[in-house]
Amino acid sequence: MEKIKLGKVFILFTYSHVIGVMCQSPLSVGTWFNNLNILTAPKSLTLQFYAQDIVTGPGQTTYEIARSSISATSPTSFGILYMVDNQLNTGPDPNSPRVGRRQGLVGFSDLNELALYLSFNFVFQGGLYNGSTISVIGRSRIASTERELSIVGGTGVFRLARGVVIYTTYSFNSTTNNSVFKYTLYITYY
């Protein structure tokens, strides 16, 4: 019994610094939020970049993580889920300057037509937006040339972000299934 109590004390003591660090960030966000003048017009910004979706081969960035019991026989691949961590670049060439990463979940979500459920973050690495994120969610009908997703939030520079993402398939390799997607973001934030 004494060992259990000492173990709990040790764990609490060991992780108390982590709890303190976690609490510091919300305080600064709280200060920011309390000083926010909601009557001030939000800032607006348009960003454009490309995601390198590498499904197979060297440098793979998209991995299947689950299948439903009907995925193998479904004409729409219903229930297949992928986790992505795609590189973002200023241009379609993977060697163009890097902007950040697209990280999240992609799943085949429609029993009747080819459509995806998308939930991911654009994670900015470097430059003015370093460490900031933009959160995106939506449905993507694969047959559509131009697709629209919702910006539902953000962190860092993009706190309280809202907006629209328009994206297209810039290129698709039918042998490897690798793609390059072009993203245009119309963002409002405070």
Please render the helix and strand layout as text.
Elements: H1 2-35, E1 43-53, E2 62-66, E3 81-89, E4 98-108, E5 115-124, E6 133-141, E7 146-155, E8 162-172, E9 179-189
Antiparallel strand pairs: 1-3, 1-9, 2-3, 3-4, 4-5, 5-6, 6-7, 7-8, 8-9
Q: What report would you give on this structure?
A:
This protein has 190 residues and is of the alpha+beta class. The chain folds into two domains: 1-35; 39-189, AOC barrel-like (Beta Barrel), CATH 2.40.480. The protein contains one helix and nine strands; from the N terminus they run αβββββββββ.
Looking at the overall shape, the CATH architecture of the largest domain is Beta Barrel
- Helix-strand sequence: HEEEEEEEEE
* Overall number of strands: 9
| CATH first level of the largest domain | Mainly Beta
Determine Rg (CA atoms, Å): 21 Å
Strand order of the largest sheet: 1-3-4-5-6-7-8-9
* Terminal CA distance: 53 Å
User: What proportion of the residues is helical, as a percent range?
Assistant: 10-25%
The description of the largest β-sheet is:
8 strands, antiparallel, barrel
Structural class: alpha+beta
Number of helices: 1
Tally of discrete structural domains: 2
Write out the CATH superfamily name of the largest domain. Answer: Allene oxide cyclase-like
Which residues form runs of ≥5 with pLDDT under 50? 1-24
Oligomer: single chain
